[in-house]
Amino acid sequence: MSAARHQLTRFAAVFAGGTMLSRVLGLVRDVVLLSAIPGPAKEIFFFAFKIPNMLRDMLGEGAVNAAYVPLFSRSLEQDGEEAFKRLVRACLSATMILFFVLTVVGILLVPLLPTALALLQPLSHADPLPQETLERTMEVLRWIIPYLFFIGTAVFAMGPLFVVKHYGTPSWAPMLLNIALIASCLLLNDYFADPVWALVTGVWIGGIAQLIVLFLAMKRHTGVLLPSWELGHPGVKQALFLLLPVIVGQATGEVNKLVDAFFAFKLEAVTTLYAANRLIQLPLSIFGIAVAVAILPTISAAGAREDHGEIRATLLHALRQSAFLVLPALVALLVMGEEIVGLLFVHGGGEFTASDGHDAALALFYYGLGLLSFTWVKVGVQGFFAIHDTRTPVIIATLSMALNIGLNMLLVGPMGFRGLALATSIICSWENVTAPSSPQNSSWAWPSSPWPPYCPPGPYSSPNGPSPSNGSPEARSANSSTSPPCWVSSPPPTS
Q: What's the pTM value of the predicted model, to 2 decimals?
């Protein structure tokens, strides 16, 4: 078990290293965009770019984590390499068709944007947006939605790569989008009359580049490059069976983001919340998501063997490890948020002013309150996916959606954009309380606490059970196999 945990830590370190490079470059990208692009163009781009990204999270990364990785892991574990390759090709076919259809439908639905914004008018307490702004936004949306096909298909390739324990390319591939956006912003900003089109060009280049790189890596490490169009493969049906409840559950989460985006757009606070959220995503992606990604193939393989003890032990290890890594960042963001935002984004003569920086720091504080909760949700939900329990996350996500909409309506009036950030933190904290206590949860799916129980000093206070001088070998063996290790002479942390 210790060797397996060491391997998990190494995989997490590899993914975290690549993710850190990508996120740091993403921070450079944000500094360039916030400083060089005028305010109205930023608002339109950040809002429009959020739409395909939300669908990517829901159907791309959501499908990879909830359906494909557990399914591919089981196929490789039980059926062998050739069956694994055939399954990957068949699922790739279904994925490409899905994202093509969604792209076309998304473009056709763009004219409904003014109607959706009008529905939020009584709730946002903001003035109606100018018609020119709405028309610009719809035009940008029509051109930026096709990014969904490129990035959705690219994200699929991460699933087989994770299963064969190749984490390097998926971790640094997002850097290509950052590079493309930085280059487009610096080189094409003056070429277009409206600078937002320079960013749209960068999105297309970055999406295509990620697709090419990840597919070449999938070919090298799994032998799969092209779809087979074998839509009748039993694995495709099983993936859809697993994916449908995930789509419902993920959709509720993405509806939360969409509602937040529409509220922010009406409040003209999209850039403010974007800047704060980018700083939250830095530690969340480097540490939390890296740990979550690293453990999923292992606990999925354990789920295929019905080794519930390994699932629980791995989850406990991952929750503690992620907390150890994230808590220092949480404290830093809460205590020094104003200084961090000012150092990174506020520059003399730039488009992101000191007033913008102050607002972003306020949003960062309220987002920061939920950073540990964001992290533990990312890690803990993998336990449900590993055992193919997609129903419990759906139930929790549906309740979260209703609660989030209610909190937005309640908090936006007195708190403005800060209410949106606080509502997000409250929701994630509530999910961490709800998931372990849900009726569907078992002691090995999502631990009720990531910390070992407190053991008072005594003959059984060793972290590994009874000391050699106390108790029989049988008693020592029984104790170590049925009880988790405990903290010696001090209670567990309460964070």
A: 0.64
